Amino acid sequence: MAILDSLSILNSFPLAEIEVGNHFYWEIGNLRIHGQVFLVSWFVIAILLLASLAATRNIQRIPKGIQNFMEYALEFLRELARNQLGEKDYRPWVPFIGTLFLFIFVSNWSGALIPWKIIELPEGELAAPTNDINTTVALALLTSLAYFYAGFKKKGLGYFANYVEPIPILLPIKILEDFTKPLSLSFRLFGNILADELVVAVLVFLVPLFVPLPLMALGLFTSAIQALVFATLAGAYIHEAIEGHDEEEH
Predict the structure, then answer these.
(1) NCBIfam families attached here (predicted)?
(2) For the chain, what is the mean pLDDT?
(3) What's the rounded Cα separation, in Å, for the pair 127 and 210?
(4) Which of 39, 71, 96, 214 has the smallest count of CB within 10 Å of its CB?
(5) What local confidence, expressed as pLDDT, does residue 211 receive?
(6) 1 pLDDT more than 60
């Protein structure tokens, strides 16, 4: 859960000035924190922790119930990491990629399934954590840090030689590329989740409840796809940082 702690720390600092609607803030010293993001993020983290505890409380040789479901989820996450990083390198990155996927997946579905807006706040309203640009940018920055850490761990200082190959003039472009790739993921995730919640909210307000249901079902599907895309590309970026080292060894 280290990635979730890092996400909470990053969310303490505004990472972007894009804001839609009013927000519920906590003033802590000189910090101005998006309170509604923390509240729902803690709810998502609590769900993941409770599911993990329930699955491991009484482990059976033949799994069933929640244990069986969680073992299936773990195998899915292992396969996701293996497909992106290869058999040799995937194991250390299963926790990172898996936590990214689970946090985004549960966050997206919480926004699609739970009527957060009926909970009254002094100002603003509750929504999925991924509905806030600061959350998605924080996830992108964590992916960038993992990307650099993977490359530096594998290649040492030689990792930075890639930035001046084949010609040094490419240095600014390669540095910019390293940050724009994960940041593009953050804006895609933010845009899709925000748009989905806004469309469903407008339709529920304008038409009877049963009319928006197909759109809500589609929203659940696209929310799952967004989590899969983010985690898959995070794994692909990490593999890109280390694959040059493996090629040199062979």
Answers:
(1) ATP_synt_6_or_A
(2) 79
(3) 22
(4) 214
(5) 57
(6) no
Query: CB–CB of 23/121 below 8 Å?
Result: no
Cα of first residue to Cα of last residue in the chain, in angstroms, is 35
Which residues are CB-contacts of 33 (< 8 A; sequence separation ≥ 6)?
Answer: 11, 12, 25, 26, 27
How many residues are present in the chain?
A: 250
Per-position DSSP letters for 160-173, written without gaps between them = GGGGGSS-GGGHHH
Sheet strands (E) in 29-117: 31-34
Residue 250 scores a pLDDT above 60: no
State the DSSP string of 140-191. Answer: HHHHHHHHHHHHHHHHGGGGGGGGGSS-GGGHHHHHHHHHHHHHHHHHHHHH
What range defines the domain where residue 67 resides?
2-249
User: Structurally, how many domains does the chain consist of?
Assistant: 1
> Which residues, including other chains, have CB under 8 Å from residue 64's CB and lie 6 or more apart?
none
CA-to-CA distance for 199 and 212, rounded, in angstroms?
A: 9
Residue 153 pLDDT grade (very low, low, confident, very high; cuts 50, 70, 90): confident
Question: What Å distances lie between residue 117 and 37, 105, 122, 202, CA to CA?
Answer: 13, 20, 12, 13
User: What distance in Å separates the CA atoms of residue 231 and residue 73, rounded to the nearest whole number?
Assistant: 14
Q: State the Cα–Cα distance between residues 103 and 114, nearest whole angstrom.
A: 16
CA distance 121 to 23: 9
Quick one: pLDDT at residue 247? 46
